[in-house]
Amino acid sequence: MDNATTGGLTFYAAAGTFDAHEKGMQHGSGLLVSNGQIVAVGSPGNVCPPDAQVVDLGSTFIVPGFFDAHTHITIRPGEGDQHGQMAQPPAWQAIRGVANLQAMLKSGVTTARIMTEEADIDFHFKAAVANGEVAGPTLRVAGRGLSPPGKHGGAVAGVQGRADLSAAVAANAAKGADHIKIFTTGGVSSTDTSLDESNYSAEEIAAIVDTAAEHSLTVSAHAHGGPGVDLAVANGIHSIEHGALLTADSVRRIVEAGVWIVLTNTILFHPNGIEQGDAQDPRILAKVQQARASMERAIELIRAEGARVALGTDSMHGLFGYELQWLTEHGYTVEEALLAATRSAAELAGVDNIGRLAPGSQADFSVLDRDPFEHISAVYDIRAVYRAGRQVVAPDGYTRPAPLSATLPEGEPNE
Predict the structure, then answer these.
(1) The domain spanning residue 7 has which CATH number?
(2) pTM (whole model) above 0.90
């Protein structure tokens, strides 16, 4: 019987541990785990009691499980027509979702923030993962995103007007949403929408935010720039998702308001993203080029102003490492990138028992073959992945669900 389920002590010995709390890699350090929780982090001589089971991970390095802060379950951008994919029958989407969740897990992602699905698929997958029926990260879900009819994100069903928007928020909350997602600008992968328009008025955004607050939920806005960002920030949005067209003024307002920015550059810059799926449409290719050029400038402003950032692949399943690599190639240190991928994302989501390896935290961690502080490409070399102290990805790539007994309740929202 596994110690993770019996409450016994297990020490995972490795060449080093990055706990997202202390600075840098702690060489010679490992994890002491009991009943799916971290008991201690340190060297065997300091934290491993004589009666603990020892799992020797060899010359590997332990990092907190990654938190993909913006993704979807069913979409594959490289196949093109993302709106069309979301309009497919639920069974078609669900079958693909199983493989997509496995790919996330194999890339070291132990928690994923789902930012729009149709047909309540994200609620069903959240339960399936929690019940040990499907292998995947712990899911935090939004339900259907809110966008006006015919706009980006609203191709299947749109909503507008204060009363209808408030009702839509309440409906998602009643189903068990962890957050609310809205679209305040157009998107790169859709035609006939602008990246800096405002889909909703100030009054409509305020109604969404106020209703969400009544249900103890925050609101995140798909927004690239212009009035769509400015109105969102001015009316209580918790995070700006994407932000490719951010300017110095908009970044300063974001920072002053304490709003998060969730960067999603894999879908934009990786050749298997929008470029592969939709570049044959000149209208979309033009927006890809516009967003890329603007983001190259915006990221300098975001870092210089000290904006709070988290990372999301936006459905580039299995490529979370690219998001980290891109950040380090644009001025961020390895430590800053790792924190954005772990502790900061947990803070964004308002949970305090994941994102770091500290006593009392859930034992969600990934085992890397190499030290990422020596080269960030080490984040691609995932040896194994653990959720709540149980191995869910083995060195040979075999993936299994986390059993019910190894899944702990989610942390309470941070005040």
Answers:
(1) 2.30.40.10
(2) yes
